[in-house]
Amino acid sequence: MKKTLVFIAGMIVLVGGYFIYKEASKILPFYGQLTQNRVGTETDLQMDDQKEAHFVGADKCVKCHEGNHKSWSHSRHPKMIQDPKANPFAVVADFSTLPSDANFALKDAVYTVGGKFKQRFMMRKDINGTEDYVLGNYQWNVQTKKWQGFKPWKYWYKDAYPHDNDQLPTSRACDGCHFTGFMSSEKRVDAGIACESCHGPASNHIKDPESKVYLASLSDPVRQNEICLQCHMRNRDNRMRDQNMSEIFGDARDYPFGYEAGKPLSDYKLVAPFVMGQETKEFYANGMGKKNRMQGNEFVHSMKGKHGVTCINCHNPHTLEPTAESNTGNDLCMKCHTFGSVIGPHQESIEKHTHHKASSKGSLCVECHMPKVGKHTGKSPITVRTHMFGFTTPKETLAYNMPKDTNACYACHKKDRDMNTLQKDLEEWGMIGWDKR
């Protein structure tokens, strides 16, 4: 009898252990990251010998890091700034339809900016003997295939510059994020986002590999994300903490001037202001972004961001994948999530979780948890996906005065259901809890 009880107890332990392992097996590889000691946002993580280093350019990295260099070179990052004379294919705009009142022609463009969603054009205009550029008064909307007027001074720094494109240099608005090295050194070392944008200046590392560059993946999750947030989080000039706009007139920066990888971003970046419940030009009242490049503003408020998930858990830092064009359906999400698991979904199948067929759009994780809520320009379609990851009900969409098309349910069912009916559907399915009432 005693042996039987021992055997039963042993089996219970084994079976219980198996289910615990099954529940936790997907999370175990990330255990170290999720439980890593948080050092705080004020601590300087850049190595001492890197503080004395300078930027050398991505060409110096390829010899030892050929694989990563090749992956990066095929991504969008190095193509954010391109020379149209050296690479005519970089131009996606149709200059045959450029409006007659444009202040530039293709022959005047020294650089293109972007090209995936919109494309702008930089013309050389030095300021006080220093190399600089200005942007043309028209930009090409890739999504609508049309030119549209462009006034860079209309953003948050509209009171910091004359209302004239020729008076707002890219060195103050764009170059910190779009040229590697410029953010801290004011030198355009690489056109586009290159190795040292994420790893910091590498001159000492090139001379001696034992002299390390910054590796964000070894930092605690909050600080790891700062590498992406330096540009993928809308901000204000950090000097506005204790100065007004008139005091920085003509010099307001739309990037964290002085920042280098590993340094505390909080010392250089003043995040775009937001108060829950208050809508602004950049945010809906629930915190979702209205524009592009607001992934960080949203993510830091998300459950994932608060629990230690990082940008590179989902995106390869060199290839940038998955992207909108190259995604893996639900596979990426299910890398960590499992039906009936501790971190959900808390149902036994995708159909029971979504109340849609497994093969339908309604059963794709991103359609409900990362719906399209923002625009790349005021005249662009709503295509920017949120990085808050929570599910917004039709009732919440109406309460926050958001466009109906930003609602995941309505975006698919606008032809056959109204917002109130969609809300009732969710309630009948038992998908509405106290937090959504």
Would you summarize the structure shown here?
It contains 19 helices and twelve strands. The protein is an alpha+beta fold and 437 residues long.
What would you note in describing this structure?
This protein is an alpha+beta fold and 437 residues long. It has helices at residues 2-24, 31-34, 48-51, 66-73, 170-173, 175-178, 182-185, 195-199, 203-207, 221-229, 295-299, 303-306, 311-314, 331-334, 350-354, 365-369, 394-399, 408-413, 419-428; strands at residues 81-82, 111-114, 118-124, 133-135, 138-141, 146-149, 179-180, 190-191, 235-236, 270-271, 372-375, 382-385. The strands form four sheets. Strands 1, 2, 3, 4, 5 and 6 form a six-stranded antiparallel sheet that branches. The longest helix has 23 residues, at 2-24.
Point out poorly predicted stretches: none
Mean pLDDT: 93
- Percent of residues in beta strands: 5-15%
Using the CA coordinates, give the radius of gyration. 25 Å
Outline type: globular
Count of discrete alpha- or pi-helical segments spanning 4 or more residues: 19
Tell me about the biggest sheet? Answer: 6 strands, antiparallel
Summing up helix and strand content along with how strands pair, one would put the structural category as alpha+beta
Helical residues, percent: 25-40%
**How far is it from the N-terminal to the C-terminal residue, by CA?**
55 Å
Number of strands: 12
Key features?
437 residues; single chain; 12 strands; 6-stranded antiparallel sheet; alpha+beta
Helices, strands, pairings?
Layout: H1 2-24, H2 31-34, H3 48-51, H4 66-73, E1 81-82, E2 111-114, E3 118-124, E4 133-135, E5 138-141, E6 146-149, H5 170-173, H6 175-178, E7 179-180, H7 182-185, E8 190-191, H8 195-199, H9 203-207, H10 221-229, E9 235-236, E10 270-271, H11 295-299, H12 303-306, H13 311-314, H14 331-334, H15 350-354, H16 365-369, E11 372-375, E12 382-385, H17 394-399, H18 408-413, H19 419-428
Antiparallel strand pairs: 1-2, 2-3, 3-4, 3-5, 5-6, 7-8, 9-10, 11-12
